[in-house]
């Protein structure tokens, strides 16, 4: 599989990455044999970037990846690990942590669970509200120099935070939700900032949490995600599924599914918006094969314009998360306008 550099000086990665969260944190537990087989299928196909976090299943996901890696797999796997989201005994999220001592402690436990002497990309899952990003990135930088971390990433942060972090240590990539249904990174400066600074983007949520699979329908008993995903609220879902239906003729023209078209669209943004890798959330091996077909779809300029007409930016009903969760995202904060003096000084 062809690869692309993930940021200036970063590792080379395939257009697809495997998001492992659903193997440990999901409404329905994943079958472990399926999860292991999925990781094997990805690595064997050249999908080497595995995205995990120490809070996925409260350590279970890292343990799972360690058990799944066969002899020789660690040398080709790129392990991307998030940290900083704190959980209680009941699984509830209870805060965000970014203190240097926590950074180093969290990595120590991750390395033990992963059975590795280093992680390839280490990133705070969210911006800690009370810790300067310089302190957090500075601590990871020390771990880079000590050989425990190869590259530093960020997640769900806005342009100002990206610049401040990058000034401390080169940032490899920024993980952000980006899909046909979540296009704010195009207009809020995140993609532009990453391209300017030579930072890659790992786009998650490429299928809009299932809405862009082309087969989603409201379950008879309701959707357990409805408390945090406004786009499946009864008042929003019909309009959003109508947008999906508008993509079907375009997918049919290529002989692919709507999900494959949506994935191909994200991969195609690499041409204009810098290095972008699509993170596929999968729990079964056949999903890897389906997604790989999307990497072979060469969408033309006319195709991309037709997709934009079918699903215009901003046409989706509902925000991507509930208000309480949106408030935690530095990436969703409106940049403070410069004062007249700041404008002159800049």
In short:
With 346 residues, this protein is of the alpha/beta class. The chain has helices at residues 32-44, 60-68, 73-76, 100-114, 133-145, 159-168, 190-197, 237-254, 258-268, 270-273, 285-295, 301-310, 323-326, 340-345; strands at residues 4-5, 12-13, 16-19, 49-53, 78-83, 85-87, 93-96, 119-124, 149-155, 171-177, 200-204, 276-281.
Structural commentary:
The protein is of the alpha/beta class and 346 residues long. It has a single domain, classed as NADP-dependent oxidoreductase domain (TIM Barrel, Alpha-Beta Barrel), CATH 3.20.20.100. It has 14 helices and twelve strands. It has helices at residues 32-44, 60-68, 73-76, 100-114, 133-145, 159-168, 190-197, 237-254, 258-268, 270-273, 285-295, 301-310, 323-326, 340-345, and strands spanning 4-5, 12-13, 16-19, 49-53, 78-83, 85-87, 93-96, 119-124, 149-155, 171-177, 200-204, 276-281. The chain has an eight-stranded parallel beta barrel, surrounded by seven helices. Strand 3, helix 1 (32-44) and strand 4 form a beta-alpha-beta unit. It is globular, with a radius of gyration of 19 Å. The N and C termini lie far apart (44 Å). Residues 337-346 have low confidence and may be disordered.
What is the 3D shape?
globular
Query: What's the count of strands?
Result: 12
CATH class: Alpha Beta
Question: What is the SS-derived class?
Answer: alpha/beta
Q: How many domains make up the 3D coordinates?
A: 1
Count of discrete alpha- or pi-helical segments spanning 4 or more residues: 14
Mean of all residue-level pLDDT scores = 91
Q: Which architecture per CATH?
A: Alpha-Beta Barrel
């Amino acid at each position: 599989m062809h690869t692309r550099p993930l940021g200036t000086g970063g590792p080379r990665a395939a257009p697809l990455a495997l998001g492992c969260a659903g193997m440990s944190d999901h409404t329905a537990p994943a079958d472990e044999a399926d999860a292991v087989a999925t990781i094997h299928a990805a690595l064997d196909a050249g999908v080497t970037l595995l995205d995990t976090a120490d809070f996925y299943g409260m350590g279970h996901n890292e343990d799972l990846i360690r058990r799944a890696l066969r002899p020789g797999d660690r040398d080709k796997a790129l392990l991307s690990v998030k940290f900083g989201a704190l959980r209680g005994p009941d699984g509830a999220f209870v805060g965000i942590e970014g203190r240097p001592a926590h950074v180093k402690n969290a990595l120590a436990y991750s390395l033990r669970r992963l059975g590795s002497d280093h992680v390839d990309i280490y990133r705070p899952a969210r911006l800690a509200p009370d810790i300067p990003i310089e302190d957090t990135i500075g601590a990871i930088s020390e771990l880079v120099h000590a050989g425990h971390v190869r590259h530093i990433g960020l997640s769900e942060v806005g342009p100002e935070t990206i610049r401040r972090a990058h000034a401390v240590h080169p940032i490899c990539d920024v993980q952000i939700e980006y899909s046909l249904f979540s296009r704010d990174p195009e207009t809020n400066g995140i993609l532009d900032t990453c391209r300017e600074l030579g930072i890659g983007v790992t786009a998650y949520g490429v299928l809009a949490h299932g809405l862009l699979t082309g087969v989603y329908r409201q379950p008879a008993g309701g959707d357990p995600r409805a408390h945090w995903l406004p786009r499946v609220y009864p008042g929003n879902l019909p309009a959003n599924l109508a947008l999906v239906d508008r993509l079907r003729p375009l997918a049919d023209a290529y002989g692919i599914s709507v999900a494959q078209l949506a994935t191909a669209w994200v991969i195609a943004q690499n041409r204009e918006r810098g290095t972008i890798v699509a993170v596929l959330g999968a729990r079964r091996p056949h999903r890897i094969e389906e997604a790989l077909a999307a990497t072979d779809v060469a969408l033309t300029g006319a195709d991309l314009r037709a997709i934009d007409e079918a699903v215009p930016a901003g046409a989706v009903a509902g925000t991507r998360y509930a208000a309480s969760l949106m408030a935690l995202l530095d990436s969703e904060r409106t940049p403070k306008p410069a004062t007249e003096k700041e404008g002159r000084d800049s």
